[in-house]
Write a structure and sequence with these properties.
By secondary structure, the protein is an alpha+beta fold. The chain has 2 domains: about 5-160, Roll (C8orf32 fold), CATH 3.10.620; about 210-260, no CATH class. Helix content is about 60%, strand content about 10%. It contains 12 helices and 6 strands. The chain has helices spanning about 5-10, 15-30, 35-50, 55-70, 90-95, 100-115, 150-160, 175-190, 195-205, 210-225, 230-240, 245-260, and strands spanning about 75, 95-100, 120-125, 125-135, 135-140, 145-150. The strands form 2 sheets. A 4-stranded antiparallel sheet has the order 3-4-5-6, with helices on both faces. Helix 8 (about 175-190) packs antiparallel against helix 9 and helix 9 packs antiparallel against helix 10. The chain starts with a helix and ends with a helix.
C-alpha cells in the first residue's frame, strides 16, 4: 500500500492518482476493499484500448463518459452531497456517487492510463475535465453524468462562483488530491469537528508538504486544542517552505505569540 508520506516525496508527474486515492481511502477506512475500483479502471482501460482510439477530443470525451457514467453509472451525489464517502475514491467506485473532484480524478486517471491527455480544471466550487485530442479539447462535467459542456457553460459556472470567466487553470496531481481531502476538512470545521479537521490537515501536509497555507491551517487547529508545541512545529515547517518575506514575517510573529502564551 502506498504511504501518504511517500506521496509527499514524489515528483508530481510520478503520482498515480488511483494508488494515491486508495491510500487516502484506507487512511479513514483501513479495511476498505479497493478491488472494485481497480477492476473498473483495468476494465475501462482494456475497453478503450480494444477499439480504435477516437482522434478528436470530443470523441475521446464521449468514450470516457460512456464507460464511467454510462456503463458503470458513476455520477454526482445530488441528494447527499456532504456525505464523506463522496470524497472517498474507493467508496465512490462502490456506491457510484461522488463529488466533482473525486469523479474528475477517475476521468483524468483513465485518460492518462491509455495515453490520452486529460486535465482537471479548477472552477470556483466545481471541477471539470478537459480532454485533448486532434489539436482540440472538449469539456466534461463528471458530476452531471459525464455530459459534454461548452466553454460558454464553463464560463457561466465560473461567474456563478464569483470568478470572471477566462482561462481555467489545470490542477496538478497533488492539487487534485489536496482538493479531495480539503472538501472533507472544510465540512468538518464547519461542523465544529476540530479533531477530524486536524487529522485531515495532517494528511494534506503529508501529501503536499510544500504548500505553506496547509501548515498555517494545521497550526491554527493545533493551537485551538492547546497543542502548542505541535503548532510551533507546523509553523516552523511552513517557514521552511515559503519564499515570501511577508508570509515569513507573519509566521515569525505567530511563533513569537505562541512563545508568549507559554510564559
Amino acid at each position: 500500500m502506498m504511504e501518504l508520506a511517500t506521496i509527499g516525496l514524489m515528483d508530481d508527474d510520478d503520482i498515480d492518482l488511483i494508488d494515491a486515492g486508495i491510500a487516502l481511502s484506507l487512511a479513514d477506512r483501513p479495511n476498505a476493499d479497493a478491488t472494485r475500483l481497480r477492476r473498473l479502471m483495468s476494465g475501462w482501460a482494456i475497453a478503450l484500448q480494444r477499439d480504435p482510439a477516437p482522434a478528436t477530443a470530443q470523441g475521446r470525451a464521449l468514450r470516457l463518459a460512456g464507460l464511467i457514467a454510462g456503463e458503470a453509472g458513476l455520477t454526482g451525489d445530488t441528494r447527499d452531497y456532504d456525505n464523506p464517502l463522496n470524497a472517498d475514491l474507493v467508496a465512490v467506485a462502490t456506491r457510484g456517487l461522488g463529488l466533482p473532484i473525486s469523479l474528475t480524478i477517475l476521468y483524468v486517471a483513465l485518460a492518462r492510463r491509455v495515453g490520452w491527455r486529460g486535465d482537471a480544471l479548477a472552477l470556483p466550487g466545481h471541477v471539470l475535465v478537459e480532454v485533448h485530442g486532434g489539436g482540440t479539447s472538449a469539456l466534461i462535467d463528471p458530476f452531471d453524468h459525464g455530459c459534454s459542456i461548452t466553454p460558454a457553460r464553463a464560463a457561466e459556472i465560473a461567474r456563478s462562483g464569483g470568478t470572471v470567466a477566462g482561462a481555467f487553470p489545470a490542477m496538478t496531481n497533488r492539487q487534485m488530491l489536496v482538493r479531495l481531502v480539503s472538501n472533507q476538512a472544510s465540512r468538518a470545521r464547519l461542523a465544529g469537528q476540530v479533531l477530524r479537521a486536524l487529522a485531515l490537515y495532517e494528511r494534506m501536509t503529508l501529501i503536499a508538504p510544500r504548500t505553506a497555507a496547509l501548515w498555517w491551517e494545521r497550526a491554527a487547529l493545533e493551537q485551538r486544542i492547546g497543542r502548542l508545541p505541535a503548532a510551533r512545529a507546523s509553523l516552523t515547517a511552513m517557514l521552511e517552505t515559503t519564499h515570501d518575506p511577508a508570509v515569513a514575517h507573519r509566521i515569525k510573529a505567530k511563533l513569537a505569540s505562541l512563545a508568549r502564551s507559554d510564559n
